[in-house]
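Letters spell out the chain; backbone shape is given numerically. Take this protein:
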Amino acid sequence: MEQLQEAKSFNEKRAEIYWWLSSLFANELTQDELAQYQSAEIRSFLSGLGENESLKPAIEKLVDALNRLQDREDAQLELSADFCDLFLKSDKYAALPYASIYIGEEKLLNGAPAKEMETILSESGLAVLEGLNEPADHIAIQLDYLGNLIIRSNELEQVKHLDEAFAEQKAFIEKHILNWTPAFAASAKEHDEFGFYAAVAQLLVAFSELDCTYLQGE
């Protein structure tokens, strides 16, 4: 029972991180949200993540970008412009956050990743990110779904059933997130001159890889 409770407690933390990452790719940060990133609470949260060696490089880049934002004139407007240029425009300097862009030309043409994700969402019965009018293979929608999937597994009462849920989560991460986000992160790194969103994308990949290791029981 104690093992089950520990796993459920950790699940809540995992879901919160995926939801947090989802929110960063869903919308630009408001002035108030950006101010929170300079708070002791958020900095402590980031420091905690950075204690893991796998996450440390991405966290260091993210914290560096946050530090530089304090000296960036019109920081919120400039960061919103970065978001728009990277994720909302479709020119060669963008890093569009859709699986279809990175999984081969043939699949891009028939929208297979988006259709597959639509089916997963429909069959799961899980709520989708409200207010985000984007194709289902948008990274924010995928991460929001994953957070919901993790929390739903907390309703289980037997370790063996939780192990099955972990296997399902690991399969989703590998098949629908890690199959394209490394290329997405590389594109963000190439095109995000300031580096905030490039760091977030790098953190997404690092955390997803680390999570798969955890789910595998290593």
User: Anything to note?
Assistant: The mean pLDDT is 92. The CA atoms of residues 37 and 43 lie 7 Å apart. The domain at 2-215 is CATH 1.10.3480.10 (TorD-like). DSSP finds twelve helices and no strands in the chain.
